[in-house]
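Re: the pair you flagged

First of the two:
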Amino acid sequence: MQSHFIQKYNIPGPRYTSYPTVPYWDEESITTAMWKDTAVRAFTESNTSEGISLYIHLPFCESLCTFCGCHKRITKRHNVESPYIDAVLSEWKTYRELFSETPRIKELHLGGGTPTFFSPDHLKMLIDGIMEHAVKAEGYEFGFEAHPNNTTKEHLEALFDLGFKRCSFGVQDYDPLVQKTINRIQSFERVKQVTEWARETGHTSVSHDLIFGLPHQTLDNVVDTINKTNQLAPDRLAFYSYAHVPWIKGTGQRGFSEADLPKNEVKRALYEAGKKLFSELGYEEIGMDHFALKTDSLFQSLQSKKLHRNFMGYTPNKTQLMIGLGMSAIGDSWYAFAQNEKTVPEYETRANRGELPVFRGHLLTDEDRIVRRHILNIMCLFETTWDKQDSQFPELAECLLRLEELEADGLVELGKNKLVVPEHARPFVRNICMAFDLRLLRKAPDTRIFSMTI
């Protein structure tokens, strides 16, 4: 890839887990009552045909990883587990009371924080409580994120018995200096052990999360980490670009200097080396930042053009309704987004009162939904079309004009009512989506709110 393209297009930009992106939500456009109405509408339209998704945010971690951009609470006190689960189940009860029939759960994901901070018994209490008044949809997929250092065989066995077949281990990098700098020290031997335990237990999809662009990271670091990862042959890989946003995430990302971070061409070289190695090892590129073996459901959904992207990342299952349970969790009804309170005390207080603990949201306009579909198509399928009336909007011609420079640089192919992202241009997919981002284009941010696109 030509380095001048990296210099040219490496600008701040959204990651597009949603459209509109969170900084552009019109929080005045929606009330909790309106969110409830859209959730009920989405449930009614889709529960029978496709089921619903649940994302449950488990925010506790025993130590702070300085690369992390997640909403978390650092504590070594495990007596926080039971009260938090009670609040989540209370929130779920409030949702269930809105629905006219039994929820059919197509997808359930435990994220964090560190879900395996919770004991196996408490995780069983949580999932049993969720499923007591719900059923699993056909082809359901339950997955959870895990820290290798505190994941036990008992965790893996208990979650497998509850229906979980997919687990994701946060690895990041194996270099000792990088690990020390990001405060995430875990040995290859430990990751190997929990990966083997997962497979012995029966988990059919094991994922490893790696990050490029971390402080003190070099090309040799990344190659060594990927070679070690290959020895364990995970079914999926996430290869994330480190997002350095200390102005948003506070003191955690101020634990090292920006001078310690690989920049521009060096950082992109880390990605290109990783992508090349993954291809040689039999992994297929899935959307942005993700890779999977051909036997994995993520690859199969890409082939069948069913790949979906939401606040949980890429998923093989598209559901119209995703309910977010827990502190800071975000729900999506397709008609609206809603995010929960971002501190544990406020979340627990409101959930235990029988309220939906929503503190902000956004009601999507007709235009939002059309633009969102184009951005989802580009992020998931690397193509989109506007040959039908319901995929067009008044400013489409202006969006296409903004793509002309990308087209001249060979980073996008424009045809009659169609856009295609060629394989070599996939690292620039965020820039391509930005051409359609009407809210960003109408009101450029006054301050830096996004990470760099490349």
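Second of the two:
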Amino acid sequence: MTRLTADIWVSAYLTRLRLVDIPAFITAKGDATAGAVLVKLNTLDGKAVVYQRSFDLMSGERTWVVLSEGAETDVDAALRRQRGFDPDLWVIEVEDRAGRHLLDEPGLCD
């Protein structure tokens, strides 16, 4: 099965968000072909959640799991640590008071 490159996946994700009027932007651009992607959901109330894609060895499915959540400053510190480990990492920040991120929609774990 052919996998999408990171830059194509990010572009498609940003387009999906834009189509439903959810503001999002790239805060860290990683490797265009194979960089991992983290999605930070900022609910604009001082809190945030960071999601990372995970592979379930038992089922073979890819899912989005919480990497960090809580006060936005703490979440940003966790993101800085992750970027320190992996400079090829992409970070997408989604801003939505209702907590929408669309990561649970079909096609976004592929």
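Residues 25 and 93 are 5 Å apart (CA to CA).

-B.
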